[in-house]
Design a protein that fits this description.
This protein is 44% helix and 23% strand. By secondary structure, it is of the alpha/beta class. The protein has one domain. Strand 4 and strand 5 form a beta hairpin.
Length: 193
Amino acid sequence: MKKILFLFSMMVALVAAANAQAVDIKKIKEMNFYGVDFSLASAPDVAESPELFKSGITKINHLLYLQVKKFNFQRYMGKRILAYNFDVTDNRNADIDAQLLTSRTVREKISEAEIQEIISSLSTENAGAAGCVFIAETLSKTARSGTYYVVFFDESTKQIIYSKRVKGKAGGFGVRNYWAASILSILKTWNWR
């Protein structure tokens, strides 16, 4: 009987924690966007050379900024974007070992510790606001999809407010556009509000 009661109380606590996390994201009205971090990604089945593949994905943050009407994070997420702070993620992406990126096997999951390490490395200018970053996990040409973690965090404490593993459909011409389409797919299909 004690075991059943213990299990029941644990389930209630987990449900409450999940609901609290869902409520927190809805309370966020404005944020800074840090782009997409590909430093932990695996892309084991791409046809392009490692260097060409890395070159394409490292240009995605620039595309998100240039085509802000198409990749309208503010409209899809329902949150005012205070600033696009891509410097740190662009630097992390530039340091990716292209051979390692394309030779990694498909990841099971990025750990919470790995996500926290990325959040801790972000240079936050507007402490006190919320920040958001997409962390790429797997880019699968065979599955025609990209898997990411969408992470919201408190910029002053670097504490993760919300983290969710999501998948978007990839498509289009060229490395950059093909994988950027998976991000647009997530924006269009995920319930942000």
